[in-house]
Amino acid sequence: MRMLLPSTLAERLLTAFRKPLLCSLWRSLAPLLYWLRAAFWWPDTEKGQQQVREEPEESQEEEDSSLPITPTSVNYHFTRQCNYRCGFCFHTAKTSFVLPLEEAKRGLLLLKEAGMEKINFSGGEPFLQDRGQYLGQLVRFCKQELLLPSVSIVSNGSLIREKWFRDYGEYLDILAISCDSFDEEVNVLIGRGQGKKNHVENLQKLRKWCQDYRVAFKINSVINRFNVDEDMNEQIKALNPVRWKVFQCLLIEGENSGEDALREAQRFVISDEEFEEFLERHRGVSCLVPESNQKMKDSYLILDEYMRFLNCRNGRKDPSMSILDVGVEEAIKFSGFDERMFLKRGGKYVWSKADLKLDW
What we know:
It is a single chain. The chain is α/β, with parallel strands linked by helices. The protein has helices at 6-16, 23-39, 101-113, 133-145, 162-168, 184-190, 199-212, 233-239, 272-281, 293-297, 323-326, 328-331, 339-344, 353-356, and strands at residues 73-77, 118-122, 150-155, 174-178, 216-223, 243-248, 288-291, 301-303, 308-311, 318-322. An eight-stranded parallel β-sheet has the order 7-6-5-4-3-2-1-8. Strands 9-10 form a two-stranded antiparallel ribbon. α4 links the parallel β2 (118-122) and β3 (150-155). α1 (6-16) runs antiparallel to α2 and α3 (101-113) packs parallel to α4 (133-145). The protein is globular. Residues 1-5, 17-21 and 37-63 have low confidence and may be disordered.
């Protein structure tokens, strides 16, 4: 009997699980099947001996849109307000709306029931609302009541106090701090200046608190015109984050580009070649996770302050209906989410601090 390649097996299973009677089982197995197909896929070309790791060609067959999308990892931007003014920001303060706490919890429960494993809270600056208490209660709810494997936060770090770690640190898996430069003058140029406060010094303090309260520490950096020539090797290795996400500066119409945008990020944009040069300079940093514009644009499930999925496929953020009104299954159809690219960029990783086996 001829043995099926893993990719063929995954394709057949994907087809079978589209049938109505197997829909619930599909929700639990979908991430594994997509991973199998992405991890073991070979094209029918002369290069068939090599596993494909390059970007997919435009001529490749489009992902079957009839397949249900599982919200495995969701980024919830519950506020757009921020105390920084980063010039390239792609999620700007267009509203001051924040859902009532119980409504936010209801939406998170809907996402968990739809298959969510990881929630990432972001903004704006998520610690602005009620001095971090709103965020803390959501973090605790997701870990203690929803029992999510991973709860994470992205913050600029300027408003975090040690008391927050004492109250909520045990419920948080990963804290990602945005740091685009280790030169304070560059941070001021970018828009991360906070008067007498030093962004880099604060980063060191947060790193220690993460270690003291057993929270995995991560750094996010947006590579742009003002930091593209910087050498961050020494500082990143000294801080030793579990992941260093390095993003290429991205333009989003209506957010940081165009007539109705609150930011004008064109002056921050770098070329693909310049981004690659930055990555080459830091190839010795083992925790580096690069994300070009192509990898980043459609590979995130983004939920806005109204709990609407934001579709970025046309270079802007087009909202779906709110999951609070129509449910997750209906709203996510309009998310524009590219699940294959999510897996290809390493979106699924060891994201629970219980599994990271860190040396606290």
